[in-house]
């Protein structure tokens, strides 16, 4: 069961910052479902994940909302 983060109505860079703060509290292997409305997250969050060792498992867009499912990677 994934953890959830509501980042709707937030504009860049706030969705990425919220994801970063939430992921810091999760152990490796956990999943985080993030719901956003800023289309910039389609580039920003996957780029942040690649840099920080996390994986975007799924991305969906529906009725102006973007949902990303992130798997937390190992901590450095």
Q: What do you see in this structure?
A:
There is one protein chain. The protein is an alpha+beta fold. The chain has one domain (3-71): TusA-like domain (Translation Initiation Factor IF3, 2-Layer Sandwich), CATH 3.30.110.40. The protein has two helices and four strands. It has a four-stranded mixed beta sheet with strand order 1-2-4-3, with helices on one face.
Structure at a glance:
The chain has two helices and four strands, in the order E-H-E-H-E-E.
Features:
34% strand; four-stranded mixed β-sheet; 2 helices; Translation Initiation Factor IF3
Rg of Cα set: 11 Å
Fraction of residues in β-strands = 25-35%
Overall 3D form: globular
Number of domains: 1
- Figure out the total of helices: 2
Biggest sheet: strands, sense, closure? 4 strands, mixed
N- to C-terminal separation? Answer: 24 Å
Please report the first level of CATH classification, the CATH class. Alpha Beta
Order of strands, widest sheet: 1-2-4-3
Query: What is the helix fraction of residues, given as a range?
Result: 25-40%
CATH topology: Translation Initiation Factor IF3
Overall strand count: 4
CATH-level-2 architecture = 2-Layer Sandwich
The residue ranges in which pLDDT falls below 50 over 5 or more consecutive positions are none
- Structural class call reads alpha+beta
Give the H and E element order: EHEHEE
**CATH level-four homologous superfamily name:** TusA-like domain
What is the mean predicted local confidence, pLDDT? 96
Regarding quaternary structure, how should these chains be classified?
single chain
